Each structure stands twice: as C-alpha cells, then as structure tokens.
Amino acid sequence: ELKVEQNPLFLSMQEGKNYTIYCNYSTTSDRLYWYRQDPGKSLESLFVLLSNGAVKQEGRLMASLDTKARLSTLHITAAVHDLSATYFCAVDIYSGNTPLVFGKGTRLSVIA
Amino acid sequence: DAGVIQSPRHEVTEMGQEVTLRCKPISGHNSLFWYRQTMMRGLELLIYFNNNVPIDDSGMPEDRFSAKMPNASFSTLKIQPSEPRDSAVYFCASSLGWQETQYFGPGTRLLVL
After folding, report:
1. Peptide bond into B8 cis (omega under 30)
2. Which of A49, A60, B18, B67 is the most exposed place for a label (fewest CB within 10 A)?
3. Longest Cα separation, chain A
C-alpha cells in the first residue's frame, strides 16, 4: 500500500524567510503532483513532476523530485503572506487501479 | 472552460434526510473522483469512475453512501440516510485519465444537524 507522508504538517514562518516542505512516499513512482488549497476553497494544481530530477518553479515556489530517494520538496523563497495555504502532494504509482494518493497536507501560515 | 461544476455549494439538512450532491466534470475528461474532506480525517477518496464505470469504491464509508455516473457529463453522490458525522466538504474532481492531473470542483459544504 502506498503511503505518502508530508512534513511538517503545520508551518508558521515569517515573511521573507525560506523554508522547505517535504513529501516522502513508500513505493516506486516517477510522477508527483503538488496542489494548493486556500482556506475555504478548493484544491488547485501547482506542479506536475514527471521524472527523476524534475524541477518546476513558479514565483516563490520551486518543486523538485528525487525518485531514488522517493522524495519531493516544495521550497518557498522569501515567503509572503499570500502564500498562506495548505499544500498537498499526491503520488501516482502506475499500478493496479490506484489513482493519485494524497498526503495529509502542510498548512502554511506566513506571518509579518 | 467552466471547470468542474458542483451543486449545491452548501447544504444544511437534518439527520435522516437524503442528500444528493451533483457534479459535472470538465468536458472531455474520462475520469471522475469524489472526495470528502474534514479537519479530523483530511482528504479521503470515496470513489472514482473511469469512462463512467466505477473502478474503486473502497473508500465509501458505508452502505448509506452511493454514487452514480449515468453519462460522461454528470455524476451524483447520495447519502441516505444522512448522519451528523457525514458533515464535511465533498469535492468532485475530473481528469483526462485516471492517473493524470485532477481538477477539483469548488466543493459542497454539507452540514447534517
């Protein structure tokens, strides 16, 4: 059974600081997704990482994938308040009938 | 494109009543997913369809829950009878293929009193 673990689950960070959210998964996969959910809103796709070493960047967010380590990171650079949200990673294992498996999410709060 | 459409957006009902949630996926998408989100349990996959056929309903909590997809542009999730513990936000998502990027609807916020 695929397990997807995110850490930290809660993160409070100051504006202007850098931080990294980690997503570990338990079985072989080379496709990983990051989603963002604003409070009271739906989930929005941020990044799709399709191969080992893949790196995607948009604004202050950069995601990377290391399939050998079964690890993806979401790096936040110089955080601003608008980045406050919950971030989910989701993993695709390409086998059986299992669709994406989501992590529990990391609730990020950026404070002044 | 209008995106995934869900209705109603909010539903308040009394315990024991039947609740029907509706979803219209993005046109051309072959896969549809129903999720439930609560503070305690996070995001849970309830059931998903591929080409209108239910593939895995192992996430459906109990027999009170049922889902249908009569055609490619419409799906329902029904709870009968509803209970207070069913209170949650229910999301519908669709994707081109069942292992592709999922696009989520706005959700239905359900409160069972």
Report:
1. yes
2. B18
3. 46
Summarised one tens digit per residue, pLDDT across range A17-75 is 999 999 999 988 868 999 999 999 999 999 999 888 899 999 999 999 999 999 999 99
Query: A50 or B71, which is more confident?
Result: B71
Substitution target from A3, A4, A6, A43 for chain B, most B beta carbons within 10 A: A43
In this prediction, residue A95 carries a pLDDT of: 63
Is B98 an 8 Å CB contact of chain A?
yes
How far apart are alpha carbons B86 and B17 in whole angstroms?
Answer: 12
Q: Tell me if A105 and B55 make a contact (CB, 8 A cut-off).
A: no
Is B101 touching A (CB cutoff 8 A)? yes
What is the distance between the alpha carbons of residues A89 and A65, in angstroms, rounded to a whole number? 11
The answer to whether B70 faces chain A, any CB pair under 8 Å, is: no
**B22-48: buried (b, 16+ CB within 10 Å) or exposed (e) per residue?**
bbbbbeebbbbbbbbbeeeebbebbbb
Position A86 pLDDT exceeds 70: yes
How distant is the Cα of A16 from the closest Cα of chain B, in angstroms? 29
pLDDT for residue B16 is more than 70: yes
- Are the C-beta atoms of A60 and A46 separated by less than 8 Å? no
Q: Look up residue A81 and give its DSSP letter.
A: G
